[in-house]
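Long-time lurker, first post. I've been practising inverse folding by hand and with some scripts of my own, and I keep getting stuck on stretches where the structure tokens seem ambiguous. Below is the full token string for one chain I'm working on. Before anyone asks, I'm not after the true native sequence, just a reasonable design that respects the backbone. If someone could post their per-position residues I'd love to compare against what I wrote down in my notebook.
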């Protein structure tokens, strides 16, 4: 039932699905799950409302019919979900999705687990690390002594996968003075350090345009010490890669605020409870959990999906500067929609 050329209102195909396998996390990064909101009073999704692995596999297989090529497993913290290697195996072997990636905070990734993920078909890992200063890191993610665990996870990922991407969300007054020390400490050609602009995802992280350090700000800091040269970037890539000529390191910039990439946005997001979101900044998701549980007809699910994708008009990041920043839009939280 392959259906060719399904495009949205801006000519974009669905090629990449980010799947949140859980909304829970063992960290409380202030920019994502501030602890004053995500505390013991917060209600996370119940087990019966989570998509099972079988349901995720079925949904992805249906989307393969319109050109899905890549899946990223994320969350919340995806490694909190038990036996995630089984999901990876089926997505790769049964569904023949060629590119399976995972984004993790690294705290639970040990050697055994990493080997298990790789042998079941995981292609790459991205690990988040916002600082190498214990005090700063603890202030950002609240889990005590996380640095050694994350660094260990980076080492393991390098050994097994030969390459690892490391995400650093740069925020004014929090970790912006650590850009050079992060580059120097992660000086390894097998690491791509990615500087991410702090985004206004959700409604709880107190985002403010003044707390954003833009890619240009970061480049200015880096070029006081190093020479950087733009590398060749693939068409739909959200990050722009550069080489540091003096050290041969690869770095990248994700500039959702200062240089949005909605024009080439080929991705959708599936929440852990089966809602499909056409944009990271959506305030509305389409419920596929009920459909997956109530019908055996894959064609019905596909045709519903095609209607949704064909009507997609999202370009939030491109319109952000024209919007009233003080207005609440009930945007979905990052830990739920999947970062
Ligand atoms: N828990 C995993 C982790 O932290 O890597 C996966 C989920 S997390 C939501 C995915 C990525 O989103 C992380 O690299 C995180 O730093 C990033 N992120 C979360 N909130 C963000 C925000 N407000 N602005 C920019 N990046 C954000
Ligand atoms: Fe958890 Fe990742 Fe969000 Fe941090 S960014 S709170 S590690 S989901
Ligand atoms: Fe895609 Fe929405 Fe991000 Fe634009 S703002 S790049 S449409 S997810």
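-- Answer (accepted) --
I ran through it position by position. Result:
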């Amino acid at each position: 039932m392959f259906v060719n050329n399904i495009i949205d209102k801006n000519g974009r195909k669905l090629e990449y699905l980010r799947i949140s396998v859980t909304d829970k996390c063992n960290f409380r990064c202030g920019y994502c799950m501030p602890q004053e909101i995500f505390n013991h009073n917060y209600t996370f999704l119940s087990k019966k409302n989570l998509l099972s692995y079988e349901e995720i596999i079925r949904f992805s297989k249906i989307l393969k019919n319109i050109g899905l090529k890549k899946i990223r497993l994320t969350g919340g913290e995806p490694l909190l979900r038990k036996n995630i290697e089984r999901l990876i195996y089926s997505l790769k072997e049964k569904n023949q999705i060629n590119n399976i990636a995972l984004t993790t905070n690294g705290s639970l990734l040990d050697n055994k687990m990493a080997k298990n993920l790789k042998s079941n078909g995981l292609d790459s890992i991205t690990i988040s690390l916002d600082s190498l200063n214990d005090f700063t890191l603890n202030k950002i993610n609240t889990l005590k002594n996380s640095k050694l665990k994350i660094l260990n996870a980076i080492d393991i990922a390098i050994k097994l996968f030969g390459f690892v991407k490391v995400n650093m969300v740069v925020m004014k007054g929090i970790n912006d003075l650590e850009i050079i020390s992060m580059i120097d400490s992660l000086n390894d050609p097998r690491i791509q350090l990615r500087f991410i602009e702090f985004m206004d995802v959700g409604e709880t992280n107190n985002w403010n345009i003044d707390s954003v350090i833009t890619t240009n700000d970061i480049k200015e800091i880096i070029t006081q010490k190093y020479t950087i040269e733009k590398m060749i970037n693939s068409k739909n890539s959200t990050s722009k890669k550069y080489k540091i000529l003096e050290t041969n390191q690869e770095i990248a910039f994700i500039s959702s605020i200062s240089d949005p990439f909605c024009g080439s946005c080929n991705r959708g997001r599936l929440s852990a409870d089966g809602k499909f979101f056409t944009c990271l900044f959506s305030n509305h998701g389409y419920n596929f959990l009920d459909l997956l549980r109530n019908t055996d007809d894959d064609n019905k699910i596909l045709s519903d999906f095609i209607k949704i994708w064909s009507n997609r008009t999202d370009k939030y990041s491109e319109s952000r500067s024209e919007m009233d920043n003080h207005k609440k839009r009930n945007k979905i939280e990052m830990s739920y929609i999947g970062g």
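A couple of notes from the structure itself: Residues 146-161 form the longest helix (16 residues). Residues 25, 31-32, 74-75, 77, 103-105, 128, 167, 169, 196, 198-199, 201, 205, 334-335, 339 surround S-adenosylmethionine (ligand 1) (CB under 6 Å). Happy to go over any region you disagree with.
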